[in-house]
């Protein structure tokens, strides 16, 4: 399989590399970060990384020793699809989603090894604790008090379209190599995002083929590339992706494993902004222009410009949802919204 056109990546900024001698140093870097950074070799001492350095099959054997007896969800692409997991011509998916146990999935990877036309196989965002036993204990990053979701991503050569995530992310290459191409959040208009609801994995993705961009159809993608950063990652390297940064991800070897940690910088009991956006499209987007302008002003007043003038004239104790959010208030609001949406 050919890698990305070097002409597209040539000249792009490289993600900043930093050093983290211990957990405290990493914590400080994460707290201060406003852009991606790489820590080379952060997890190189993991047993899983060491197995992967021996061979892809050794990494698979290591994972099999820690697997739980469970059905895994796996995406299987079309033969000759060049590893791209994306839409088909009818805006369905160009891959099948199947359920199988890990030995069966790895047996297929073993059988296809060395075949350049083999279908891509990809296990995405598998919960480390739910699907493996002892894997986290032997292979993890100390992220202090952060409440993290630890996931593992396993696959052959794959290309995952640019998308973003609300949580912050620390992505650690455990086997193979990966290339991330990253864009600041404000570049969303230049990435030509696809549908919000019909997506391969829950987030809107860029419709641009990074291996063969169609600049006639996507001319503003050139602007996005002016702001892009590239991270070429080896086994043991870790990449921090701040919240909402877009990232295109390529698995570059016949077998690739990544372990990542997601966490929110805000309390877990706060709502998901994507839910609010979806509801706004349902209830506001198709209103007449004058009504939309009024609701835009209300959103600015109550949400985006919510200074003390919003509540100064209301007696304390009677401000309701306008007061600073608490877990109790969030629970009441969520219950109220569920009742309203069920009508």
From TrEMBL:
The residue ranges of the JmjC domain are 115-278
Q: Which residues cross the membrane?
A: none
Record Pfam families:
Cupin_8
- InterPro entries named among the record's database cross-references: Cupin_8, JmjC_dom
What PANTHER family would the database entry show?
HYPOXIA-INDUCIBLE FACTOR 1 ALPHA INHIBITOR-RELATED, HYPOXIA-INDUCIBLE FACTOR 1-ALPHA INHIBITOR
Q: What is this protein called?
A: Cupin-like domain-containing protein
Q: Which organism is it from?
A: Sphingomonas suaedae
